[in-house]
Amino acid sequence: MKFSKATNYALHTMLFLVAAAPDKHIGVQQLAERQSVSPTYLSKILTKLVKAGMIESASGANGGYRLKRSWEDISFLDIIHAIEGTASLFDCDFNHGPDCLIQLVMVEAEDEMETYLKNKKMSDLARTVKLSKISL
Amino acid sequence: MKFSKATNYALHTMLFLVAAAPDKHIGVQQLAERQSVSPTYLSKILTKLVKAGMIESASGANGGYRLKRSWEDISFLDIIHAIEGTASLFDCDFNHGPDCLIQLVMVEAEDEMETYLKNKKMSDLARTVKLSKISL
DNA sequence: GCTATTATAGATATATAGTATCCCTAATGG
DNA sequence: CCATTAGGGATACTATATATCTATAATAGC
Ligand code: SF4
Ligand code: SF4
Questions:
Q1: Do A3 and B90 make contact, defined as CB atoms within 8 angstroms?
Q2: Cβ within 7 Å of nucleic strand D, residues
Q3: How many Cβ atoms from other residues are within 10 Å of residue A125's Cβ?
Q4: In which element (H, E) is residue A56 found?
Q5: Which NCBIfam families match (chains A, B) (predicted)?
């Protein structure tokens, strides 16, 4: 079990956009170079973020991606869910009802992690990221 | 990102062994049938649990698997780690030092989940599982 | 309008990990 | 000795993630 690289790319891109000028569009070319990943691949990932309403895109010259106005409320969990989906980490094909101890524990465990990630929002990082000149 | 089926099988087997007679060996055949999985495949999974010191095996007639004496202290996290390994869920190829906000958050998030799973021990389930006649 | 630029989408290829089976060997109880 | 059972190697199959290529659509600037 691992977080996908796509999630990694998405997180880095979001963090970079937070640190960058919020009103200017930034091309996928530049974003991809920074992370040593193919532009077309990153594009597919960012399109998911667009559809999830976190960023907006503009075609044509001087186009690219930028944060939406409501970016401060976006959480790590939002980004992860946009890329990896929202399905439960633990799946059994059956549903043996409320007596199932395993699902009870596993779902609650996942919930612990998600609660933490839900409370880590872009706004929390905004100040820090400007100061520290993020590396990637 | 998903927990593997192997982890699912391991958890179910452990739970079953906890509910079963603790001194008697139980063959992989029986354990596999219960979960509709190939005996040889389940065998490989259970061997990992043996090597992790959670259960012990016996070859030959009337052989099989049974819990070790210290079973009560075994946690969900122990089982998961035995099957899936202990590597971090989030991996980037670089290490950009303590300024890295992303790793900070992701590692802490994983830690939240692991702490919960570490505190869910077999002993906590022992009483409940006997009462409720587990379904699988 | 024309052209350069840039995002989007489909098709396709490659890599990796998970899942599973087969078969042989080793150990052990009867 | 024989039946039974775990362990391990080799192999096959599957699913998913990763990545690239190409074509299309939209848009800014001239
Ligand atoms: S016992 Fe729980 S985890 Fe296991 S198959 Fe049934 S519902 Fe799923
Ligand atoms: S910024 Fe952090 S998460 Fe990103 S590559 Fe560097 S160390 Fe890894």
A1: yes
A2: A 4-6, 37-38, 40-41, 44, 58-63, 84; B 1, 25-29, 39-40, 43-44, 46-47, 50, 57-65
A3: 22
A4: strand A55-58
A5: rrf2_super (TIGR00738)
pTM over 0.70: yes
Lookup: tokens for B119: 């505190």
pLDDT at B136 (0 to 100): 60
Q: How many CB pairs under 8 A join A and B?
A: 104
Query: CA–CA separation, B110 vs B62, rounded Å?
Result: 41
Q: What is the pLDDT of residues A62-119, one digit of tens each?
A: 999 999 999 999 999 999 999 999 999 998 878 787 778 899 999 999 999 999 999 9
Cβ pair B7, B79 in contact under 8 A: yes
**d(Cα A47, Cα A60) in Å, to the nearest integer?**
16
Q: Would you say A65 and A52 are in contact if contact means Cβ atoms under 8 Å apart?
A: no
Question: Is A3 in Cβ contact with B106 (below 8 Å)?
Answer: yes
Q: What is the mean pLDDT of chain A?
A: 92
At which residue do the structure tokens 């990221």 appear?
A129
* pLDDT level of residue A135 (50, 70, 90 thresholds): low
Ligand 1 pocket member A2 (CB < 6 A):
no
